[in-house]
Amino acid sequence: MDARFLYPLESCKIIHLLRHGQALHNVEAEKDRNALLSPHLFDAPLTDHGHQQVENLRERVVSSGLLKRVELVVTSPLFRTMQTAVGVFGNEYKQSSMTSSPPILALEVARDRNGVRPPDMRRNVSEYQTLFPTIDFSQIESEEDNLWRPDVRESEEEILARGLEFMKWLWKRPEKEVAVVSHGIVLQHMLYVFANDCDLSIRHELCKRFANCEIRTVVIVDKGMASSTEN
Asked: Which domains are delineated in the chain?
């Protein structure tokens, strides 16, 4: 056993990062990348295979006890991520005798790369509230999507800044174990925030591309809090 770090539990958070299940635009993009510009793929939903991926992960999350441990689920406010969040962690379509579910909160900062591509544009909040009544949309400031721009694609630097903003927000939350349902490139950039604290081999494995419905668990540490505890 190569134990190189020791931190008090109160200075740590467990974060489960989950990419949405396979969505329609994922399938179409494999055939032709230009399909991502099609308005027919606006706010793309999960495919039948994506729904099956979600069902399979739900079974794992329940059987492993993870569903009981997660105190909060944060989701991107796009259709495919919310379908995934509710399907894996929610209780909308489950029996009332099932394990109680954690609250699910939609945040703009967790959404996909913005601009140009219609699959990454969201619907009005009021429409989502009807479709996903158990999701909390109180943190979404605008009814309409004011962040998506038809002619400008969000840069990777801007996504990284979002990742840092999100991690700062998350650290201030009282929950110690949180699930985040988002998009591949956004999850990678959330991990890049901490990449310099890892060995190169670990960094490569940790920050590689997410597969659809892949869940990856990390522990983040407030080293300042850990130092003050040690003193």
From this structure: 10-223 (3.40.50.1240)
